[in-house]
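Why do we care about 3D structure at all? Because function follows from shape, and shape follows, mostly, from sequence. That is the central idea of this module. The next example makes it concrete: a single protein chain, its amino acid sequence, and then its structure expressed as tokens.
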Amino acid sequence: MSIVRLIYVSVKGDQVKDAVNLWKEHCAPLMIKQPGCLSEKLLECVDAPNEFISYSEWDSQESIDKYRNSEAHAEIQRHSRGLQGGQAIVKRYAVK
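And the structure:
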């Protein structure tokens, strides 16, 4: 059973373009290379363009745990923390 991991993030209105570029050029390429990461997408809210969801699908919780303790995760956090307008909210969903 795979697990979908959703990270809800809002950025300041003037940082939308920077956030999209950062995710596409740095964060997503790092994440998709992680063992167990099956897919990675950035969703932009149509109704509120400064709200995003990082959507990733993983083969197991063990793979997520390994990723969260990796240098790649630490690097993604360093890149993205400067853009967040508020706290990121992480939720996991089992694919049925």
